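Hey,
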Amino acid sequence: MTRGKLMSEFNGREFFCSWSGGKDSCLALHRAVRRGGVPRRLLTMLSEDGLRSRSHGLTPQVIAAQAAAMNIPWLTGRAGWDGYETVFLARLAELRAEGIADGVFGDIDLEPHRQWVERVCGMHDITAHLPLWQEARRDLVADFIGAGFSATIVAVSDARLPTSFLGRVLDWQTVADLEAAGADACGEEGEFHTLVTDGPLFSEPLNLVHGEVVGHSGYSFLEVSLADGSGVEE
């Protein structure tokens, strides 16, 4: 298991990235590429009906636009929470059959998440890399912003943050306001989720149109669409 920054021997190795569409998976991908890794696939788990992503409530159209902007093929799995691991393992088997033996994940410091990705990847002889692991959360945000990425807040926990944060770009003023509201800069405890729209991995930015705010399962989600009419909603 590789923790913290990816080691130099990662250079040239092909990998897949567990992709939520948000800042943490994006920064993990960016660090792997900076260290010479070759991204072969983005892997995103969707709901059973395939209408939105499990983690951030994004529609396939928006995540597909991210993948296209980064020129990385996109792989999905569909599952309810009960069948999540079974479907995830099936996708890992497909990736391993393609010769991919390394996976990159954006987990920061939640130990049960680390244990899970380490276990499921190990079942298919895949090495799980966590390039953000146990790094100070504010330092990660500084790296993300400093690298030139742009992200928009698209979901907030109703118990932790007001809906006024929805649609805001994750810049230093927003970070300060998040911290003043009691959230940490990364939102690692589920306070908020982001959608990455531009950055050094992107050939062109995503052009977003903001829609209505809808509630679901204790979260408020900003309906977001792409300017060409495709979109994301919860």
